[in-house]
């Protein structure tokens, strides 16, 4: 269950009523593009794709030998699986992410892995991302050197259904390849094989994840009063004059989720609008309780330039009681409580303290941290982002601003000869 709390934002229900026509129009405009080629709205349908899920499960069953799973990919090709695997891994398979190009950690990783027990998953929608291709060159070479002709069984690609270098490689070499549907962009691809394949090896409950996402779909299309994504989109719209959108999650298991949200929000919404005006707010990742001891001082007493989203679990999946220990009477106020009660008290205290400081803050309560609630949350945030794209007059599904950096990198390398 996912629940919105706006107790510190009085007047929100009036705002919701006042903005109903705008919100419904934005939703209509978005949905009118559903099914259009190039609209990139295929992520809406991913939760229903049980055929792909079956294929992925079969592949997982055919490869019980895997002990280490190396994901080569960056941005939307890595952030989602990384966030979900950290939260729900249960199989003992070790995961490694090559979402960078720093030589030392890659050398260390290559030295530590047993190639016979390693599955490499190269993930790239475009098949053209320099970081991913560089990782692939290294791992391909390594697999071939250690396994000879058998290397092909140790490399699986997740990429565009038709085009790009990874699809061509898979075709030439007969590699197993999973498709990222044409109409699904990288940062909206977590519920495609980009996320599902690694999560199958992690032993996560994929049925529950997709069921949760279907719930978000249902709510996105529901009447305004029940449409959580329209409501949170409105919260961001009403606060678009505040430059920073903090996304603070009270769960260690969800420690990589803020990074996933940052890409989703920033790369989708930080753009020029139709009139050429610069649009967007800057998502700032935060983790509770750690960032209470790092960022909350600024949030409390620094500029009132933020809208804060707190993601707070309401109950634990399992809890740990804090035992009374005679040697530590100073911790007496904790005796007999549980770890989760402390976590919850800290989240609630921070929520109140931020509101009292004058910051604009709301909470998204999760009944617990589970594949179901997180599937729901991820898909909810994708809807929120898509609605904001409509409200702000930007295309939430392209990223023209990253192209120049890529072209220059290539030019620098080619210039070196
Ligand atoms: O999946 P690809 O095509 O390798 O892209 C990786 C990432 O790079 C970007 O295109 C930005 O450069 C992101 O949108 C994307 O998630």
Can you give a write-up of this model?
- By secondary structure, the chain is an alpha/beta fold.
- It is built from 15 helices and twelve strands.
- The protein has helices at residues 12-18, 20-32, 50-62, 79-88, 103-112, 130-147, 165-173, 193-202, 206-220, 228-238, 257-269, 296-301, 339-356, 371-392, 403-415, and strands spanning 2-5, 68-72, 94-98, 118-124, 155-159, 176-179, 244-249, 271-272, 278-279, 282-287, 306-313, 360-366.
- The strands form three sheets. The chain has a five-stranded mixed beta sheet, with helices on both faces. A five-stranded parallel beta sheet has the order 3-2-4-5-6, sandwiched between helices. Strands 8-9 form a two-stranded antiparallel ribbon.
- Helix 3 packs across helix 8 (193-202), helix 4 packs parallel to helix 8 (193-202) and helix 10 (228-238) crosses helix 14 (371-392).
- The radius of gyration is 22 Å and the shape is globular.
- It starts with a strand and ends with a helix.
- The site of 6-O-phosphono-beta-D-fructofuranose has 14 residues, from loops.
- 6-O-phosphono-beta-D-fructofuranose binds next to loops.
């Amino acid at each position: 269950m996912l629940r919105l709390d706006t107790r510190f934002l009085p007047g929100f229900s009036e705002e919701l009523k006042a903005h109903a026509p705008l919100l419904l129009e934005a939703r209509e405009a978005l949905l009118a593009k559903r099914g259009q080629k190039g609209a990139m709205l295929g992520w809406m349908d991913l939760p229903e794709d049980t055929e792909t899920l079956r294929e992925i499960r079969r592949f997982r069953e055919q490869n019980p030998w895997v002990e280490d799973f190396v994901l080569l990919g960056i941005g939307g090709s890595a952030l989602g699986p990384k966030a979900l695997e950290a939260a729900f891994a249960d199989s003992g398979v070790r995961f490694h992410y090559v979402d960078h190009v720093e030589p030392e950690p890659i050398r260390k990783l290559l030295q530590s892995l047993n190639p016979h027990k390693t599955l490499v998953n190269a993930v790239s929608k475009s098949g053209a991302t320099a970081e991913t291709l560089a990782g692939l060159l290294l791992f391909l070479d390594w697999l071939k050197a250690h396994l000879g002709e058998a290397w092909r069984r140790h490399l699986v690609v997740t990429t565009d259904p038709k085009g790009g270098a990874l699809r061509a490689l898979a075709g030439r070499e007969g590699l197993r390849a999973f498709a990222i549907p044409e109409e699904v962009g990288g940062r909206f691809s977590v519920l495609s094989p980009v996320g599902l394949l690694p999560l199958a090896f992690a032993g996560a409950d994929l049925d529950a994840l997709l069921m949760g996402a279907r719930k978000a779909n249902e709510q996105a299309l529901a009447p305004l009063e029940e449409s959580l994504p329209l409501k949170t989109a409105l919260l961001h719209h009403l606060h678009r004059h505040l430059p920073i959108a903090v996304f603070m999650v009270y769960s260690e298991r969800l420690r990589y989720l803020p990074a996933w949200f940052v890409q989703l929000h920033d790369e989708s919404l930080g753009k020029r609008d139709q009139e050429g005006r610069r649009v967007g707010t800057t998502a700032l990742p935060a983790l509770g309780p750690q960032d209470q001891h790092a960022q909350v001082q600024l949030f409390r007493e620094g500029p009132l330039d933020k809208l804060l989203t707190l993601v707070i679990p309401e109950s634990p999946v399992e809890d740990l009681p804090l035992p009374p220990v005679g040697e530590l009477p100073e911790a007496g106020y904790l005796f007999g409580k549980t770890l989760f009660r402390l976590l919850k008290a800290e989240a609630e205290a921070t929520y109140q303290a931020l509101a009292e400081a004058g910051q604009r803050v709301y909470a998204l309560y999760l009944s617990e941290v589970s594949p179901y609630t997180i599937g729901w949350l991820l898909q909810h945030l994708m809807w929120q982002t898509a609605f904001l794209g409509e409200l702000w007059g930007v295309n939430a599904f392209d990223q023209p601003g990253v192209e120049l950096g890529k072209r220059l990198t290539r030019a620098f390398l080619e210039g070196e000869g």
